[in-house]
Every structure is written in C-alpha cells, then in structure tokens.
Amino acid sequence: MSIFERYLTLWVALCIVVGVALGHVMPGFFGAIAAAEVAKVNLPVAVLIWLMIVPMLLKIDFGALGEVRKHWRGVGVTLFINWAVKPFSMALLGSFFIGHLFAPWLPSGQISSYIAGLILLAAAPCTAMVFVWSNLCEGEPHYTLSQVALNDVIMVFLFAPLVGLLLGVASISVPWGTLLLSVLLYIVVPVVVAQLWRKVLLRGGDDGFNRAMRMLQPVSLVALLATLVLLFGFQGEQIVRQPLVIAILAVPILVQVYFNAGLAYWLSRRFGVAWCVAAPAALIGASNFFELAVAAAISLFGLDSGAALATVVGVLVEVPVMLSVVRIVKATRGWYEAGAGKVPTALEAHR
C-alpha cells in the first residue's frame, strides 16, 4: 500500500474542509458546475465516477462471472438487507431521531419532509460507488458487479411501491430519466468501455496489463477525492448556514449505515460467506443511490424542501462514512475468518 493510500482518511478530511470552504467562498463557480446536469445527474461528477470505477472494472473477466453462483449466500444476504431491512429501519430511525428526539431543534413544518427524504435515501441501493468501496476492501469483483446489476433491475420494479408504502402515498412520481440515465452512465457505459480496454491491454500480455493497472490505481483515488471536493463544494453555503440541522440529519443516516453494514457482515459470517464477498456485501447493504434519492425528493417535495436537504446530507455523509466501514471490515478480517472457516482471497475466489 502506497503512502497516498495509507493516509487516505487524512486526504478525505482535507478535501471535505477544502470543499466546504471553496463552496462558501466561490458559490457561483460551484453553482455553475452543479448546473451541468441531465435528468438531475451531474455530468462532471459522472466523469469523475468513470475515472474511479473504470480501472476497477478492468479487473473483471466476464468469462468468470458464472462463478458468482458459488456466492449465492452473499447475494441473498445483500438482497435481504437492501430490500427487507434498510428502508424500514430508516423509517424507524427517522421517526425516532427526527420526529421525536431532535424535534425541538428542527423547524416543525419540515419534520415530516426530513423523514421522507431519509426514506427516499434508504430505498435505493447504491450503484457506481460500490465498485470503489469493494476495490478498497479487496472484495470479489464479479460478485460486486453481479449484485449491483441485480439491484438495478429490482429497483426499477420496487422503488416506487416501496417508497409509496413507507410514505403513505398512493402514487409516487419516479424520476425514470434519472434512474435509467444513471444506470446507463454508471454501469453500462463503464462496463463496455472497461471490457474493450481490457482486451486491448491484454494483447500486450499479463506484464503490460499489470503495469497499466498499477499506473491507473492513483487515478481512481484522485478522482474520489476530487468528487468529494465537488460534493461538499456544492453544499458549502448550506453547511455553513444551517450546520445544526445538517448534523442532526446525519445522525440517523450514520446509525443506519453502521447498523445495516454490521447486520450484513454478521449474517454473512453466520452463513459461511467468503470474506472477499462478505466485505462488499456489507458495503452494498449500507450505501445509498443518492442521485436517485435527490432527484425523487426534488420531484416530490421541491428543491427547497426538507426532503431534498435530507437526501443531500446523505450525499455528504456517504464517502467518509463508507471509508470508515471499509476500514472496519478490513480490520476485522481475522475475526471474521476465525468464525467462518478458511476463506479464499478475492484472487483465489475467481481463479
């Protein structure tokens, strides 16, 4: 591990500070970047996400995807967490923290809207960023790709009725443009580009391929940090103007992330799932598809609503808290394997 990777948490903290400061000092500049979007999908952020995930997708050999069936327990755990636990646990946490515990410190007219935003955030499992977290914890890449693709398919059918059930709304206006464009930009295009590039690199032999992968590794991390500066820069004024509200909204999100990640990790251990699958399973189970959540909140409640703000807080919390989950699953690998038996590494798992 390079010095840059070893001190990634420090660089993340610095990027958060820099992003907030620049967003407060240069709101016009960040506003212009934020406006470069199609169907609520920010194009500069999409480019940075490509730079993050394409090097990781280069590692995936589609010929080995069939081996994912060996990890069916991990797939089952993640599906259970994403669709049977996470949305409902967030509804309970939002009601407790926002509706009761912290209600005296929040605008009374926005409380129900805040809770709705949190539910929207939890109802959509993460897509692109999962590849980043899985790569950082040495997760099994074929499992990660398969699980993300499966979640995308399920999301098309379950997002609207699930949100409608939890919000008590008969008809949910799903931002289909955002959903479909996000899947196209963050999954389809990067996978196609990565596989074509992989074929070109492999023509130079394994040594050339490995050399290219080592050169591309820093690109992913730099793109991650640049994304962080942008995300916090977009909300720099908001953070400075109402820090207490944002801190309060972050509480149920943090509890939800650690609860769902921990439950997925524990269930994986109980069912004897390989650690290289359990680690990304915990991360997929905990992370959120914030682009869809923000777009849905804006379309349902408006740009200046409490729901929109709650989903934006999810965006701000996502990167630092998921990095902490990465550190936890890596630090507890010995404990995990002691209870689950001999577990193959990610490389061994897809040989």
Please describe what this structure looks like.
The chain has 351 residues and is mostly helical. 79% of the residues lie in helices and 1% in strands. It contains 17 helices and 2 strands. The protein has helices at residues 3-6, 8-25, 27-34, 43-57, 72-101, 111-122, 128-136, 141-167, 176-202, 205-234, 236-241, 243-270, 275-286, 290-301, 306-331, 333-340, 346-349; strands spanning 37-38, 41-42. It has a two-stranded antiparallel sheet. A hairpin with a 2-residue loop joins strand 1 and strand 2. Helix 7 (128-136) crosses helix 8 (141-167). The longest helix is centred in the first third of the chain and has 30 residues, at 72-101. The model is unreliable at 342-351 (pLDDT under 50).
